[in-house]
Design goal:
Blueprint: H1 5-20, H2 24-38, H3 43-50
Length: 51
């Protein structure tokens, strides 16, 4: 079964927030930080580290 990446990320994020109950500010900081880093000069470095 092929599941789109965005759907898997939404499901894992929802379950993680439901089970672990992190503070809302921490979730927002991680989302915003990830968005900003993905569009920065560090993106190629992170891409090679992830792969």
């Amino acid at each position: 079964m092929d599941v789109p990446l965005w759907l898997a990320l939404i499901a894992v994020g929802y379950l993680g927030c439901k089970l672990i109950r992190p503070p809302l500010w921490l979730v927002l900081v991680l989302l915003l930080g990830g968005y900003l880093i993905a569009d920065s000069l560090l993106a190629p470095v992170i891409d090679t580290a992830v792969k």
